[in-house]
Amino acid sequence: MKAMSWSKMKTAVSLLLIMMMVVLAACGANTDTNKSAGNTNSQTEQGATVSPSPEATPDSSKEAGETAYPYEVTDATGTVLTFEKAPSAIVTLVPSETETIFAIGAGTAVVGVDQWSNYPEEAAAISKIGDMATNIEAVTALNPDLILASSSMNVDAITKLRELGLNVYASNPKTYDEVVAKVEEIGKIMNMQAGAAEVANHMRQVKEQVTTAVKDAEKKKVYLEFSPGWTVGSGEFLDELLTLAGGINISAAQSGWFEVNAEEVITQNPQIIIYPDFGEEKSSIVAGIEARPGWDAIDAVKNNQMFSVTNDPLVRVGPRLADGLLELAKAIHPELVK
């Protein structure tokens, strides 16, 4: 019973996060930078000085230098932050930032994380500072000298924390390469450039592995349903991942995140359907697909080419996005990507 309850809770949380992304996208991503508005997945690096770095060499981590302080950076909200030294007490407001800070080797400096930071395992023992509604008092009680946030998912919290004089670095990576650049930038802030370079290099290597494997392959028509009744179009990082993985997003004619047009999907007739695994006993997405009139005639349904992929790595703009890309590629081109 407990396991079933946890599974249902994870499903509800995943759906809540995804629907928040959709609502934010509907409100518009190009609002004024002081409000930090936009969509976690449809965001632009407005005002950010971070940009995709050139391809790293395999030994780039060995060549990574030391950060010279004071170190100044402009984040995705256009806010300039100056660090006199490497931060030693970090709070993360979203799981992607928790994963990033641990991946570069700075996990021991983390003093607070959001409730849904479930990776790596060490995050479970760290003080919790709320869920999607950040507990401002809990954050300030930890005396952080760096708070890592999403400039779209944490809009209100960022404003309140900055009013209290706290250092908030907010990011908005929209593409795979921008996620890599974010990892490297956080490495510079933390003076953990070697660790960040290892992570960034791994992400680049996975991208190269996938794109090389599928470059001459047939581009298969793919339908992605990331939440029951919702899909993603052009201009979003999931659309880019599908393309990198050797697929053609059948929803790319429309931009952003939107409700499924059932008739249009039938017309497009995808060869493959991909959906996230929410840990449900019976996928609510699959149940919806099976109940839609006419969808039994779609090639992907007829040929049993519907595949679930691990949810968290695919939707968190952190180091494990490489795992999400690789899993997508294996689903689309299993004969080419091992």
From TrEMBL:
Q: Where is the Fe/B12 periplasmic-binding domain?
A: 89-336
User: Where are the annotated segments for Disordered?
Assistant: 35-65
**One GO BP:** cellular response to iron ion
Q: Does the keyword Signal apply?
A: yes
UniProt cross-references to InterPro entries, sorted A to Z: ABC_Transporter_SBP, ABC_transptr_periplasmic_BD, Vit_B12_bind_prot
The organism's superkingdom is given as Bacteria
Instruction: Name the keywords, alphabetized.
Output: Signal
One Pfam entry for this protein is Peripla_BP_2
Polar residues biased stretches: 35-54
For this UniProt entry, which residues form the secretion signal? Answer: 1-25
SUPFAM superfamilies, A to Z? Helical backbone' metal receptor
Family statement: Belongs to the bacterial solute-binding protein 8 family.
State the protein's name.
ABC transporter substrate-binding protein
Per the UniProt record, the source organism is Paenibacillus pinisoli
